[in-house]
Every structure is written in structure tokens, then in C-alpha cells.
Amino acid sequence: MEGSNCLNVKWVRGKDVGSGEFSTAYEIANDGDHIMKVITFDDDLMPYSKFDDMIRIQNLVASIDLTVPVVDQWVCNNNQTGVIVMKKLTAQLHGVYKNNKLFPKLKDKMNMIAGIREIYTRLFSHDISHGDVGLRNIMIDKKKYGVSPVKIVVSSRDYPLYLYLIDFQFSLTSDKYIIDDKMAVDELTKWMERYYDL
Ligand SMILES: Nc1ncnc2c1ncn2[C@@H]1O[C@H](COP(=O)(O)OP(=O)(O)OP(=O)(O)O)[C@@H](O)[C@H]1O
Ligand SMILES: [Mg+2]
Question: Which CATH number does the domain housing residue 164 bear?
Fold first, then answer.
């Protein structure tokens, strides 16, 4: 896709692990612990000018233990492509919320919903809006990053799991848009409660 002019000798691109509208995430062939997110800029929807802001907000959100920080970044292809390297998180909540082995009891499902609300509440308390609330942008991992990441207790495991946000391309450090995010969080959690028959 990007050609040899986007190569980085330190981080060698491995296989595709997921993609969205403007980006694809890849494993790193020589480092199993990280992923690289490759963003293709779009003048109207995902301009190059937003790249630095995205990184700034991800690092800000990492400082309140709600995501993993950016460990490396670069732009290439005449500023048409941006690359971000970060710790590899295990799974999107979107892919696992239906998993009855992971969340066997009603209590587990309730804990997950409470965890989802807790991440956004903490985010909003720092005047940050995410801009794309949803299960696709929440990852679950058994690793603890930071001092007090949002923890969920599940009866299926004897250790806690942690929730982390990803995808800060629509995020803003202005309280103006928090109201929209709050509505989205309410809708999401209501929908989950109906889904689980809580
Ligand atoms: N830290 C991470 N660890 C593991 N996988 C990740 C990580 N960050 C992103 N991904 C994967 O890459 C995909 C795309 O990332 P992201 O959501 O940041 O970009 P996007 O282009 O906005 O996606 P979408 O349009 O689906 O919201 C995610 O759906 C996820 O599968
Ligand atoms: Mg996303």
C-alpha cells in the first residue's frame, strides 16, 4: 500500500490485524508487543493537519490511564500517510461482548457496562470528548497499563481485565462536544442492557 518510502527499519510491518475507515492496523514483524496503525489522510475527513492533535490527545488520554501511549510516529508518502506505533491490545469489546464464557453471569455483564461508563466518565471529567463512542473503539486486555486503568472483574477469571479506548481521530479537548458523547454512551449502555435482558 504505502510502498518502500514508508518503511521504518525499527518497526517492520507484519500482518493486518484490523482496519477501519481511514486506517489499518498491522502487527510488527520484529516486535510482538506493539502494533502500527497506518492512516491514509483524506483532505476532507481525515486531514494531515489532524495527525499531531490525534497523537497529543492519545498521549493525554494515556496519562489518565484510559489508553496506551504513542511510542513512535512518522509521516510518509508526501504527507499522505501517517503511522503510529503503540502497545498491542488484545481484543475489541465489539468482538467479545457476546462471549458467554468470558462474561458468563449477569453480574459480569453488569460489571462490563459499569466499566464502559467509567471510562467515558473519567474522560469527560478531564474535558475530553472521544467523538466515536462505541464497542469497536474499546479494547479489553489483561495487562495493566498505567496506575489505575478501568478494571472489570469477571467470574470466569481469577484476575481482572482492563478496558482501554482507542481511535482518537475525532477526539477533542473541548467540553463543547461532550454532550454528544454522553448521549452516545447512554444509548450504548441502554442497548447493552436490553441485549442482556438486565
Ligand atoms: N492498540 C491496539 N492494539 C490492537 N489492535 C488495535 C489497536 N489500535 C487499533 N487496533 C485495531 O485497528 C483497528 C483500527 O483502529 P482504529 O479504530 O484506531 O481506526 P479507525 O480507522 O478509526 O477504525 P474504525 O473506523 O473501525 O473506527 C481497530 O478496529 C482494531 O482492530
Ligand atoms: Mg475505530
Answer: 1.10.510
Find the 9 Cα to ligand 2 centroid distance in Å.
27
- State the CATH number of the domain containing residue 18: 3.30.200.20
Q: Whole-model pTM above 0.70? A: yes
Domain boundary among 87, 108, 127: 87
DSSP secondary structure, the chain, as one string: ---GGG--SSS-EEEEEEE-SSEEEEEETTEEEEEEEEEE-BTTTB-GGGHHHHHHHHHHHHHTTSSPPEEEEEEETTTTEEEEEEEPPSEEHHHHTT-TTTS-SHHHHHHHHHHHHHHHHHHHHTT-B-SS-SGGGEEEESS--SSS-EEE--TT-SS-EEEEE---TT-BSSGGGHHHHHHHHHHHHHHHHHHHT-
Q: Which amino acids bring their CB within 6 angstroms of ligand 1?
A: 17-23, 25, 35, 37, 68, 86, 88-89, 92, 132, 136-137, 166-167, 169
Same domain, 111 and 185: yes
* pLDDT for 7 beyond 80: no
Instruction: Please report the atom of ligand 1 found closest to the CA of residue 164.
Output: 1
CA 19–ligand 1 middle distance (angstroms) = 6
pLDDT of residue 132: 97
